[in-house]
Every structure is written in C-alpha cells, then in structure tokens.
Amino acid sequence: MHELSIAEALMGSLEKYRKEHGGRVLSVNVRVGRLAGIDPDALEYTWRTARECASVELKECEIKIAVAPIRHRCRNCGGTFERDRWIIECPDCHQSALQRENGQELVIESIEVE
Amino acid sequence: MCKDCGCGGGHAHSHSHTHVRADGTVYTHDHGEASHDHAKTPVTVKLEQAILNANDAAAAANRVWLAARGIVALNLISSPGSGKTRLLEKTLEFLSEKGIPCAVLVGDQYGEADALRLKRFASSVTQIQTGERCHLNAEEIMAELPRLPEGTRILFIENVGNLVCPVAFDLGENAKIALLSTPEGEEKPVKYPALFASSSLVVLTKMDLAEVLHWNLPECTDNIRKVNPAAEILPLSAQTGEGMQKWFDYLIQYMKKGENQ
C-alpha cells in the first residue's frame, strides 16, 4: 500500500507546478505501468486523502489513471508485442527470450488547467 | 456587468466570446466597452514527468554523494522473515574481521529490534521507522548520509520487509539485492516479478531447510531466469555457512568496483 506515498508525491509535483505557473488544476492524467505495483483503485482512493491537505487550487483536481500495456521485444526473432500482462514466451517463435521494454513507469502525462 | 451573461467586472475592450449554458448549449456574443470577467477555457498541459520526480532527484543526489566517497550502497529487499537481518549479522561479523568499515540503515515500520541485533556487529547502525509506510524513500536515506562514519566502504540498506512497494523507490543504491528464502516456495519470482526483474543479485536464503521443505532449486532458478535472465543467483545458508564465501566475494568485488568509480 504505497499508493499514499505516490499520491503525496503527485500532489507535490502539482503544487510545484501551480506555484510556478499559477491557475487552478482541474484534473491530472496519470500513466501507470503494469509492474509499477500500483493498484489504480487504491491510488484513486488515496488521491482523495491527499486532496484534503492540498491548496485551494488543487482541492477539486480529479485523477484519471491509465494503465499502460507492456511492450515486449523478442531477442530471438525480433518481434514486438503489446500485452496487458507480462508474458514470458514469445507468441511467434515460442522462445523464452522476451525483453520487457516498460512496465514500471509512473508518469504524469498531462494536466487540465484553467 | 455584462447584461447578456451576467458575469462580473474585469477587462474593458470590445470583443466577442463564447459561453456554455448550464444546459450545455453554446452561444457567442459581442461585448462593447463595458468591462467584465469570464471563465477561462481549460487548457491541457503536457508534462510527461515521473511522479516520483522528487524521490528520483534525491536518489540521484545520494548516488553522487556515495560515489564521491567510494561507498558502495546495496539495497536489500525481501519479504519479512526471509533472513535479511540474519544474513547481515553474519556479513558484518565477517567484514569487521577483515577490517572493512560498514554501515547499516535499517527500515521497519516500528521498533528498533533489527538495529539492536545488528549493533552487536557494526558501530554505525541506524534504525529508520517508517510508521505507516511500507518502504524507505530516498529522502530518508539522504537525511542519514552525513552521519555515516568517515571511511565507510559498504552501506547496507535493509529495506522494510515487503516484496512490492520498496521496488518503486530508488534510494540511490548501486544495486538492488533480492532475498528469497526457501520456505517462501519456488514461485515468488513469477508471482512478484517487479522486484526480481530489477535486482542484479538474488540471494536464496535458508538453504539448510531446502531438503526438509522439498524445495526445488532448479525450479526456483528457472523462475528467476524467466523474469530476469541476467540476474546472479546465490544460494546460501547464514545458519550453516553454506555459500557464504561466495556472498562475501561478491561484496568485496563490488567494493573494489566502487574504488574505481
């Protein structure tokens, strides 16, 4: 359950943005890797807690979480595959030679500001 | 006051603009010189910025700080009860006999139990209590670094016992080391792949129990290889001493690499 730490770090980044650029942040779009160890529901829940301590310009900021598919590249046949889960065996050549290219990302993609 | 939409004072120049009514219909109208204010249209700002930016920046600073002093930092991560503290007791005992100064930062949610155990084998042991948090973060490590004794060669960071959360937080370590004990079974690497995929070494602990547990080394090794073909795998028992020399060799090698940084 480190989602509260993630929510606090996210809020910290948005507070920093607000101080530098001003405006009210209406929503934040977040991209989460399948192997980031983040449960989207728990992050949404902890986001509501983090908002309680936020400045007035961020109090109503909604969080939108997109879970990114995992990109695999086969070291044997060179094929690339996007899947909702981590796969071990190459769907084409059936070798256990897949290299994972992402999965642990935790990224603020964009924010809506007015 | 604008008579068309009723919004309050603000700028004073002639222009036309668009409103959205409460029922969703859109209309555009002109303003004369009368001044008024109107809602700004929300804009999307692309950021593509890591959420753990602050942690990652602190970790990068820790890495620079440690490298400048030739200190190798190892982040030990595993389930609670897999033998991190026991392995460290034996390790500190060996390294102090060899005259290699080590320090330990140990994270737990509550209490000083681990620090008390480890203090018998090393002088610089600091307990970090994380409270409700289930992992250490880079800022906590940063706060402790200035207190490390001069001449420290290896910094062991014993993370909070947890296979999931500590993985997301870079502490500025040279390497993550995963521990997996035989009583946990052979499948943990494929059930909790994130840790095993990001560790450069997997230490298999409590090997003295393997036989009685019918624990299968090739099966476990195979599972580790599935998620991390490059990981080194080191089976050992801190209890019997089996495999410990290889672990010490690994540490000394790592330390020498640190000298050449």
Outline the structure in words:
- The complex is a heterodimer of chains A (114) and B (261).
- With 114 residues, chain A is of the alpha+beta class.
- Chain A has a domain at 3-68 and 103-113: 2-Layer Sandwich (hypothetical protein PF0899 fold).
- Chain A has two helices and six strands.
- Chain A is elongated.
- With 261 residues, chain B is α/β, with parallel strands linked by helices.
- Chain B has two domains: 1-43, no CATH class; 53-259, 3-Layer(aba) Sandwich (Rossmann fold).
- Chain B has helices at 53-68, 84-97, 113-118, 138-144, 188-191, 193-198, 210-213, 217-227, 244-259, and strands at 15-20, 26-31, 43-50, 72-77, 102-108, 124-129, 154-158, 175-181, 201-205, 232-235.
- In chain B, α3 (113-118) links the parallel β5 (102-108) and β6.
- In chain B, α1 (53-68) runs parallel beside α4.
- Chain B starts with 14 loop residues before the first strand and ends with a helix.
- Classes of the chains: A alpha+beta (114), B alpha/beta (261).
- Chains A and B meet through α1 and β6 of A and β3, α1, α6 and α8 of B.
- β6 (106-113) of chain A pairs antiparallel with β3 of chain B, so a sheet runs across the interface.
Round the Cα radius of gyration of chain B to an integer and report it. Answer: 28 Å
Shape of chain A: elongated
Largest sheet of chain B: 7 strands, parallel
If helices are DSSP runs of H or I spanning 4 or more residues, what is the number of helices of chain A?
Answer: 2
Residue ranges of chain A: pLDDT <50 for 5 or more in a row?
Answer: none
Largest sheet strand order of chain A = 2-1-6
Give me the side-by-side strand order of the main sheet of chain B: 6-5-7-4-8-9-10
Secondary-structure content class of chain A: alpha+beta
CATH topology of the largest domain in chain B: Rossmann fold
Biggest beta-sheet profile of chain A: 3 strands, mixed
In the CATH hierarchy, what is the class of the domain at 3-68 and 103-113 in chain A?
A: Alpha Beta
- What level of helicity do the residues of chain B show? 25-40%
In terms of per-residue confidence, which ranges of chain B show pLDDT below 50 for 5 or more consecutive residues?
Answer: 1-18
Give average pLDDT of chain B, whole number.
Answer: 88
Structure class of chain B:
alpha/beta
Overall pLDDT confidence of chain A: 92
Order of helices and strands of chain A, N to C?
HEHEEEEE
Strand-residue proportion of chain B: 15-25%
